[in-house]
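Regression test case RT-17, inverse folding.

Input:
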């Protein structure tokens, strides 16, 4: 039984950090989901659910861009929740356990990204020999086995130590220190909220965060009604700034690639669907040397197999996609492989399309589309979905992680599918359609989503950033409870001030790690000095 649990934990850890296939592993990297799975594996689903949701609060502004990993959120969620469940600890302690685990998890990430570089060179050898049938092994299977060993090893260590080890360890910790950690756990979600403000916080949009925060504080509104109001305000904002431009709209509806039916060698719809779906796993062999090259060549196999028969043509096509490439591959970035499929189809039919043209276009697009895609996915869709999910999960409702998964993955598949086929139909002109040159439609849409996201995150901040003054001032025979005085002045003033103060530190380029350590010192020190207490 212990071996099976360890193996399931190892698989869960790899799904959370191994980047197997975006529709599954991107939402799975968040503690709200992986913590729930850990709880199920270890026999306490409810504690796994609430601990995972609590941990996720500190990472609500977590964004990994360009291959960087500020903290390994997947490892933090899986092993932070696992220790919490094994020890039978309060969910609030999970967040203080998970953050150092996440920082240590970056070492596993660095090792994973380094070792995966080896398999890219195996793919180079496959390309020289036009060995399409061996791409799967070196692009997917062997890198994933490597990641499974790296990310899964701690699971066997935890299960070897056993539940009694962590229960006894927790029992040896003084109750006062456990309470101090719980106080600290109430402060740490401010980091996640502040990170998101730092990412989305245009000055003119900050009032929407304030509205969401104090609507939750004063009106007692939950996250869902605030999300509904935020969505209505986002729609109003989007359409109030819209400028009609029928000439541009007509140009975007043109089909520059008309006449595909006249091509002698044509891609089938099944080829395109395989290319798109496999391409959603572009980071499957993610490595420091060439980033997404392994996933790209794997996705191109159906396209190359359909279009090219000569070994030299196959070899050249494989080499085209084994160069350095890195973008957001699951949302906006889907337009790039769609364009590439179109260009490869034309090239196979004799069009004068060079290697330089294809890779020049890919390289030129990867940066701008990564910026758009990371902003949309990590800065808008994720915080909105996870805020709703965590709110339900913290109430013990298992629909929380399910709703988040459906929102995040549903939007990913819908956006990705349409942009991939837009790229295929329109070729290189698809980018102009996407960016909406002259209308600013994408900017307005991003701002609209930002309004919704800031209001929802404001509500989350009011509900989950907990700062409680325990200090009491004696004036004669009268006791003045400072927390009650502040609540009478402005409700949730200290949580709001903590979030804004944390945001200011991040804006001044103070490392999030330093901020976390600072809050831990404030929480633990404040409790022992009698200034801060457990939230009621």
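Golden output:
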């Amino acid at each position: 039984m212990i071996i099976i649990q360890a193996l399931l934990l190892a698989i869960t850890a790899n799904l959370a950090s191994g980047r197997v296939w975006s529709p599954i592993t991107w939402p799975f990297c968040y503690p709200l989901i992986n913590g729930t799975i850990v709880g199920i594996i270890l026999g306490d689903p409810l504690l796994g659910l609430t601990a995972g949701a609590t941990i996720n609060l500190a990472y609500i502004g977590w964004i990994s861009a360009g291959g960087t990993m500020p903290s390994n959120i997947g490892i933090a969620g899986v092993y932070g929740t696992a220790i919490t469940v094994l020890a039978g600890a309060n969910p609030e302690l999970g967040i203080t356990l998970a953050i150092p685990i996440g920082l240590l998890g970056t070492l596993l990430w660095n090792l994973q990204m380094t070792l995966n570089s080896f398999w890219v060179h195996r793919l180079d050898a496959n390309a020289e020999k036009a060995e399409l049938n061996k791409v799967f092994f070196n692009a997917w299977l062997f890198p994933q086995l490597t990641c499974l060993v790296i990310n899964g090893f701690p699971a066997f260590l935890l299960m070897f130590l056993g539940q009694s080890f962590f229960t006894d360890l927790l029992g040896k910790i003084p109750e006062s220190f456990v309470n101090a950690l719980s106080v600290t756990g109430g402060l740490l979600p401010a980091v996640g909220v502040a990170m998101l403000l730092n990412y989305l916080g245009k000055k003119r949009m900050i009032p929407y965060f304030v509205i969401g925060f104090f609507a939750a504080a004063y009106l007692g509104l939950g996250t869902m009604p605030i999300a509904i109001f935020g969505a209505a305000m986002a729609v109003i904002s989007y359409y109030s700034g819209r400028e009609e431009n029928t000439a541009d709209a007509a140009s975007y509806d043109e089909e520059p690639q008309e006449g595909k039916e006249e091509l002698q060698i044509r891609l089938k719809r099944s080829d395109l669907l395989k290319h798109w779906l496999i391409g959603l796993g572009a980071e499957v062999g993610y490595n420091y040397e060439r980033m997404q090259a392994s996933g790209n060549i794997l996705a191109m196999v159906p396209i190359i197999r359909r279009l090219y028969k000569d070994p030299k043509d196959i070899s050249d096509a494989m080499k085209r996609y084994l160069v350095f490439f890195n973008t957001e591959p699951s949302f906006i970035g889907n337009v790039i492989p769609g364009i590439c499929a179109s260009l490869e189809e034309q090239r196979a039919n004799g069009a004068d399309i060079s290697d330089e043209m294809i890779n020049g276009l890919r390289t030129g697009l990867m940066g701008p589309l990564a910026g758009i895609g990371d902003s949309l996915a990590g800065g808008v869709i994720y915080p909105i979905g996870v805020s709703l999910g965590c709110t339900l999960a913290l109430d013990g409702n298992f629909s929380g992680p399910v709703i988040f998964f459906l929102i995040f993955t549903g939007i990913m598949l819908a956006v990705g599918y349409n942009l991939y086929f837009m790229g295929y139909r329109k070729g290189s002109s698809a980018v102009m359609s996407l960016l909406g040159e002259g209308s600013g439609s994408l900017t307005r849409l991003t701002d609209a989503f930002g309004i919704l996201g800031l209001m929802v995150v404001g509500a989350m901040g009011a509900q989950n950033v907990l700062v409680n003054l325990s200090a009491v001032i004696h004036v004669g025979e009268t006791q003045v409870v400072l927390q009650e005085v502040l609540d009478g002045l402005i409700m949730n003033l200290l949580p709001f001030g903590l979030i804004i103060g944390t945001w200011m530190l991040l804006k001044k380029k103070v490392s999030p790690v330093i901020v976390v350590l600072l809050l831990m010192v404030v929480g633990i020190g404040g409790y022992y000095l009698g200034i801060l207490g457990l939230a009621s």
